[in-house]
Design a protein that fits this description.
Two copies of one chain form a homodimer.
Chain A: E1 6-8, E2 14-24, E3 29-35, E4 45-46, E5 49-51, H1 58-70, E6 77-83, E7 94-102, E8 117-121, H2 132-146, H3 153-156, E9 161-162, H4 163-174, H5 180-190, E10 193-195, E11 210-213, H6 215-224
Parallel strand pairs in A: 2-7
Antiparallel strand pairs in A: 2-3, 2-5, 3-4, 3-8, 6-7, 9-11, 10-11
Chain A binds a DNA duplex through α5.
Amino acid sequence: MSELKYSYKYPHPAVTADCVIFGFDGVSIKILLVKRGIEPYKGKWAFPGGFMRIDETSEECAKRELDEETGLKTSSVEQFYTFTDVHRDPRERVITIAHIALVRLSEVKGGDDAEVARWFAQGDIPSLAFDHDHILRMALKTLKERICFEPIGFELLPEVFTMSELQNLYEAILEVKFDRRNFYNKMLKLGILSEAEPRSADASRRTPSKYKFNATKYAELKQKGFRLEF
Amino acid sequence: MSELKYSYKYPHPAVTADCVIFGFDGVSIKILLVKRGIEPYKGKWAFPGGFMRIDETSEECAKRELDEETGLKTSSVEQFYTFTDVHRDPRERVITIAHIALVRLSEVKGGDDAEVARWFAQGDIPSLAFDHDHILRMALKTLKERICFEPIGFELLPEVFTMSELQNLYEAILEVKFDRRNFYNKMLKLGILSEAEPRSADASRRTPSKYKFNATKYAELKQKGFRLEF
DNA sequence: TAACTTTGTGTAAAATTAACGCAATAAGCT
DNA sequence: AGCTTATTGCGTTAATTTTACACAAAGTTA
């Protein structure tokens, strides 16, 4: 009555997919963690993730685990590094394909059990299970690099946003400060923003213009190979 | 007398590490392929690689396979993407962690069996085994990105090189042409080059200056976070 | 020998980036 | 209500960087 039904000539590592989930509340970056309910590292916070099934790709696995553990559904899931340290899991040899997921906080319904899944501010992350501290460092580094090549920010912002929100996002991810007016000019000149509404006449100075992401224009730019410089 | 000695409760994919090996002959990029001696894809060209052992990381595996299949030893091996398509190997479920290796052609001794391993010019690659065509496309894309952040070129060039060789390398990787004088100025201003010899007095105009990579200066630059713009 | 290539060293114009000014007006405070 | 502060749109100017070429010396090729 052995439960070990799957046998191989050579040892096979287990393969998992983990998800580093980023959100943005208009001011700072948030990261979603789940509290582990079982050993090892029971009670510690970790990234959602789990064992890859034999008939799914790592991205499919990451999305499935994300949904199962947090109820979030997002199309923006992409691998960024595979962690293969021999002793990263005390149970058996496990390698994990780590993914970055971007979700719109504005679309997240608050129904989650806060004891199980919680958003943490970037500077407020507790020590994590497994090698997830290491995974987090790599994820943050990757996010910084990607934001210069792809307008990933638009996956984090609501459909319609202000220039200040966009700037806050870039500043939060890149950990720098920009001059508001120069940032404004640079973004507009890029051409990947369109004004959401034609700025109503009664709008006063203090009411900011609303923008949205222009996917068509971005596709053209991407074709030529562009890069955001900061 | 079953040979299936390793058993698990759930199915485990096999994990391999593959190596896309780049070399540079002073003019163009070369890629090292090995001819497969066994099925599947027997007789087809492929990247060196093989199954990861249970006690080694993917990089250790990549280096070991590289050595075993081609006799090359290089320290510059780094993963760039993990390929997880469900049917990428007809035998069983195999995911592969793909690596980029950079080797100095000047240090490669020609003793290899040309029937088994051969350098191909970049535009001259035959159709490859498995999903290795896909892997190659990704590797070339990754190389283009990395060369803007790290002076990986210096792993491909001999210890001492001329400015033209360096420019040829950048042009080959990025598939663009630069103005010779502007490239020269930009590279010198960066400060990561030192003159190898103080340009002998009898050297005529046609004898180019020799440079080498200044690792100290690069470390300083890297600290600040730099980027090569092209 | 003539035509061409390769190398070192420039320079001037064009484009981009960085730094900052200012007025209008909403919001906060007493 | 009156005062201060913060936010937004729209500029300008100076510094820096990028781009496009010029030219002479000296090998190489035909």
